[in-house]
Write a structure and sequence with these properties.
35% of the residues lie in helices and 29% in strands. It is built from 12 helices and 14 strands. The longest helix is centred in the last third of the chain and has 21 residues.
Amino acid sequence: MNFTLTRRERSVGLDVGGGSIRALVLERRRSEVVVVGRGAALGDAGGDSAKLGQAVHTALADAGAAGEPVIAAVGGPEVVIRQLSLPPVPKAKILPALELQHRELGLLPPREAVMDAQILRKSKKDVAANEILSVSVPRPRLDERMRLFQQAAVTVRMLDVEPLALLNGAIHLTGLDAGELLVLLTVGYQSSVLCLFSEQGPVVARYLEVGAEAFSEQLRSVFPLSVHSTKDLARAIPAAEVPKAEAACRELVERMAEDVRLSLTFYRTEYDRESLPRYAIGGSVDLPYIGRWVADRLGLGAPLEVMDPFSSVEVKAPPTTGEMASWGPQFLQAFGLALRGL
């Protein structure tokens, strides 16, 4: 008798974000992507390195990925992402060409940054050119991130860029159509990331100076509650008091909505007037009203679509303790990172 063993592709995404660490393990089984492990731990990337390393190992161990190579990300407003058109050149000559023209292309100086690029497709405007996705990361930012993983004794299989990882996860979850323009708002602890993408235009990413922490502070200034987490804070607010909570957060929501509005207007004016916007939200959305509040400010008829890998992808991971099963939106970046390895 002959037995055929099916090889399962496996990948670990590690998100070291503000205040917490998230690890997600994916396997590709035939044509499906399956979540087979997930773990989380509290840890501040700017805090004690020993405690951070322990938090990273706890998250990986809980995800069943202790000792495995990971795919991680580096991010921040200093990171530059550009989609450019270049004449066809050998792959080995793309980076030298970008470095030579970095000023004209709006990229960081080669001496101060690490640059990477890949060919996306043939240019739609110029058949004799290629669309190139280029990323420039300041060397100090990259060194800081790599030093963190070295101190934690974690092997990095691949290093991605935060906005691209978020888009990668959201595009998979939405099954984005060719005629749609994805408007993705990912709420972080201290800041948020706004990404826009369609097949007719480039990737546009912005960091917004509003995060979950600011919402918590506003709510605590109005409601004398002793709970600390945003999720517990939201639960402690009676339904009748939600309008009061919305009023307390109105300025923050308005700032978010205005950033979305201006960025979308720019994208549609410069790149894509035809695609239909599809609004989505992920990250720290423990305060469930944020998506609805932002949608209301944008004049939409429904809340923003929640990007939750745990509700959209089959989960074969062991049962979790606590409430991790409801933390899907917080694992969007880890999900997008893990997809890179499949």
